[in-house]
């Protein structure tokens, strides 16, 4: 007894391949989204620190050093002018003032919201302003004669003020350098974190890919491969091979359906074997019946026709010898007897010909329909001459079949076209042939009285007549024999309902080869 799965296993047992794939894809997307978010954050963090270091910290330190250099140029120029009284020494001072203003203008935006850096800058600007106001400006604006006196009077104050300014700038630069160093360290940490993050993402992606591959192998390709292998064994004839399914629920259902189909095939095969045995028995019975039918045909063609010919001969002899010597009723009765014997003989001959189609005449060989038609027209030459019929035809192909049966086919179709001619016009009969897709389509068209649409299927049934014997003599077997000949050769036959006036019989025969159909000679018309 199979143990029923319990707990989580039982809950997953009903999951189909689609559900497993949906859940797997969703979980994979969640994992990839989380890893992508972490990777994006690491990239953003690295970019932020790099931007801060490149666009703020380093440029701020550089600009601070430029401010210091500009102030040093100012102090050098003022001191030189105070000692020498020469205004050439004021050129570095003027350049230093311009450089200081430009550097401060660039430095202020770089500090942003950094409170300590702004406080350091404010202190530097305050001390620089005090030194410029107390020392640099008075000396620089004094005349050359007074410059030395002013400089000497303020030398100690200037040194003290500028030393304080130097210390403030040193503190500012130390703080800025410390912040740049911290940013550099954070950048290295962020790059390391980013690299580790990408490595982890790569490992997780590889693991996810491996899990997906293994899951597909175990859940889909593996079960499908085993099921396909078992199905191929069954297809090769091992019908006792059971088709067991594993994996998701839909694959198990598929295996169950295939197993049910295998069991049905086994049952059908067993039934077919039994039916084959019955068919073999029926074939033997049919063979025996055909033998008896051939014996009957021999009896009908010899023993049965012999007394019939005797009756016909004596009634005809009676008619010739005593015709006109008896009363009118006797002459009528003798005529009825002669006509009945003749019709009976014709009917027996037609039935024998009908029964021999596919049984007696069955010599399959290449048949030139041109020769068959020529022979058939010669056989009907008397009827053609009496009725003034005109028979034309396209180039007819060579087909595989029995020449005798194909001659019977053409003879019946042509004789019908002549027999059922229109009383007001001579018969005009045309035989056409068209080769398409390995098949020859033949049409036998005439301008006779035609066949009404409701009777176009009925005319191919044996003994079915549309007219009285007095109007059109015959046994009603001709078109039925045509149908039997065409179907024996693997073709079809019918009446074209759209042809007017007259009748067009359309029948098909298999082509001898595809080359025959492709290289058919152009149509030509001959007249008999």
Structure overview:
- The structure is a single chain.
- This protein starts with 6 loop residues before the first helix and ends with a strand.
- It has 528 residues and is α+β, with helices and mostly antiparallel strands.
- A hairpin with an 8-residue loop joins strand 6 (493-495) and strand 7.
- Strands 6-7-5-4-2-8 form a 6-stranded mixed β-sheet. Strands 1-3 form a two-stranded antiparallel ribbon.
- Helix 7 runs antiparallel to helix 8 and helix 9 (369-379) packs across helix 11.
- Helices cover 70% and strands 8% of the residues.
- The chain has helices at residues 7-13, 17-84, 90-111, 115-141, 144-153, 155-235, 249-322, 328-356, 369-379, 381-387, 403-419, 478-488, 514-518; strands spanning 365-368, 390-393, 398-401, 428-436, 439-445, 493-495, 504-510, 526-527.
- It is built from 13 helices and 8 strands.
List keywords for this structure.
528 residues; two-stranded antiparallel sheet; 70% helix; rod-shaped
What would you say about this model in short?
This protein is of the alpha+beta class and 528 residues long. It has helices at 7-13, 17-84, 90-111, 115-141, 144-153, 155-235, 249-322, 328-356, 369-379, 381-387, 403-419, 478-488, 514-518; strands at residues 365-368, 390-393, 398-401, 428-436, 439-445, 493-495, 504-510, 526-527.
Reading the helices and strands in chain order gives HHHHHHHHEHHEEHEEHEEHE
Strand content: 5-15%
- Structural category is alpha+beta
Total beta-strand segments: 8
Mean pLDDT: 77
| Spatial ordering of strands, largest sheet | 6-7-5-4-2-8
Our count of helices gives: 13
Please give the largest β-sheet: 6 strands, mixed
* Rg on CA atoms, Å: 59 Å
Compute the separation of the termini in Å.
88 Å
Overall, the morphology is rod-shaped
Helix content: 55-70%
Low-confidence stretches: 1-8, 514-528
């Amino acid at each position: 007894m199979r143990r029923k799965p319990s707990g989580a296993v039982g809950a997953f047992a009903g999951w189909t391949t689609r559900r497993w794939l949906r859940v797997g894809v969703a979980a994979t997307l969640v994992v990839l989204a989380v890893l992508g978010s972490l990777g994006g954050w690491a990239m953003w963090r690295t970019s932020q620190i790099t931007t801060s270091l490149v666009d703020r910290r380093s440029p701020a330190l550089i600009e601070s050093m430029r401010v210091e250099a500009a102030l040093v140029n100012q102090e050098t120029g003022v001191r030189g002018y105070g000692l020498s009284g020469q205004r050439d020494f004021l050129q570095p001072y003027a350049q230093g003032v311009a450089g200081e203003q430009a550097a401060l203008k660039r430095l202020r935006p770089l500090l942003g919201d950094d409170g300590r850096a702004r406080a350091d800058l404010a202190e530097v600007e305050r001390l620089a302003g005090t030194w410029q106001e107390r020392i640099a400006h008075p000396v620089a604006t004094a005349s050359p004669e007074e410059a030395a006196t002013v400089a000497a009077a303020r030398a100690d104050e200037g040194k003290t003020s500028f030393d304080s300014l130097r210390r403030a700038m040193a503190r500012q630069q130390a703080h800025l350098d410390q912040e740049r160093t911290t940013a550099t360290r954070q950048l290295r940490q962020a790059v390391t974190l980013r690299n580790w993050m990408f490595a982890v993402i790569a490992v997780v992606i590889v693991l996810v890919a491996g899990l997906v591959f293994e899951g597909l192998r175990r859940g889909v390709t593996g079960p499908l491969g085993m099921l396909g292998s078992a199905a191929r064994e069954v297809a090769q004839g091992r019908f006792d091979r059971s088709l067991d399914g594993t994996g998701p629920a839909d694959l198990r259902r598929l295996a169950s359906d295939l197993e049910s189909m295998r069991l049905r095939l086994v049952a059908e095969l067993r039934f077919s074997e039994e039916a084959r045995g019955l068919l073999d028995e029926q074939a033997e019975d049919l063979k025996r019946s055909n033998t008896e039918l051939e014996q009957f045909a021999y009896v009908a063609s010899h023993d049965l026709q012999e007394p019939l010919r005797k009756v016909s001969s004596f009634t005809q002899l009676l008619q010739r010898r005593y015709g006109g010597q008896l009363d009118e009723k006797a002459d009528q009765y003798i005529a009825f007897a002669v006509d009945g014997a003749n019709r009976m003989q014709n009917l027996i001959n037609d039935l024998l010909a009908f029964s021999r189609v596919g049984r007696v005449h069955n010599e399959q060989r290449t048949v030139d329909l041109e020769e068959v038609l020529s022979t058939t027209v010669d056989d009907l030459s008397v009827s053609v001459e009496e009725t003034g019929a005109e028979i034309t035809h396209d180039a007819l192909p060579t087909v595989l079949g029995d020449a005798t049966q194909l001659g019977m086919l053409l003879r019946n179709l042509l004789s019908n076209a002549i027999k059922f001619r229109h009383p007001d016009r001579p018969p005009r009969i045309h035989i056409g042939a068209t080769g398409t897709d390995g098949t020859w389509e033949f049409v036998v068209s005439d301008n006779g009285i035609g066949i009404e649409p409701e009777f176009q299927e009925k005319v191919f049934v044996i003994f079915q007549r549309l007219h009285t014997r007095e109007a059109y003599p015959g046994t009603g077997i001709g078109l039925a024999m045509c149908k039997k000949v065409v179907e024996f050769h693997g073709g079809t036959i019918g009446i074209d309902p759209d042809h007017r006036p007259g009748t067009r019989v359309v029948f098909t025969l298999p082509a001898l080869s595809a080359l025959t159909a492709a290289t058919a000679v152009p149509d030509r018309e001959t007249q008999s």
